[in-house]
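Class prep. Protein, please:
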Amino acid sequence: MSRLKSCFETLKQNNKKALIPFVTAGDPQPGITVPLMHSMVEAGANVLELGIPFSDPMAEGPVIQAACERALEHHVTLDDVLAMVGEFRIRDSETPVVLMGYLNPVEVMGYETFAERASQAGVDGIILVDLPLEEGEALIAALKARELDMIFLLSPTSTDERIGTITAIASGFVYYVSLKGVTGAANLDVGSVQQKLQQIRSHTDLPVGVGFGIRDADTARQIAAVADAVVVGSAVVQRVADNVDDAEKITWDITALLASMRKAMDE
């Protein structure tokens, strides 16, 4: 059984929801990433989402765009990100790690090479924002052959037909983008999210995670009431931006945020 499937099944048995924080690998400097990953798990994270730095992160708002820029100043590459996951696995063999990024670095490495190296490093799944399902057959096959999950995004504008097509191929979990626009957007409408999740669940038994617009314990609690997972990105990355020269403060602020979210979600 995959780490993602085992994680979600265990949470379900304990009547809990997954907390999935996102950080950009190598932000604000490479040495902080692996220790921060461990600290986030200790604070209550169930799955870690690790961003692959990219020069044109089209789906990201200013906060995560800036995080990519800071990481790229240190020349952090996909090779480095895989090495970070491998280092994380020395101490943690259970927490699922999902990579999130854009197609170009994976294409440069090559689908088969990427899938093999990701598997060896201990990656569990991949989200590629700009990979259309219709063009993903070769990569999906390479990942599936190594039991890695291809996680797809759905949005408020996804049609019922499109939801059915994507959920038939997806594995691991489904990532519902709760807002139109880029990461960091506000105005979360939980009622609309709940309605869309009902539509998605009519097509699949996969867990459904919700991201975009979750910024504090209260919004995490609201989303946990209707979703299987709460994905928090910009609120975490903003705490990196606020303390770029203080690794200890970064860790303290992020773990405090996640602990407050975990507590609110469990209540």
Observations:
- The chain has twelve helices and nine strands.
- The radius of gyration is 17 Å.
- Residues 103 and 227 are 27 Å apart (CA to CA).
- The first strand starts at residue 18 and ends at 24.
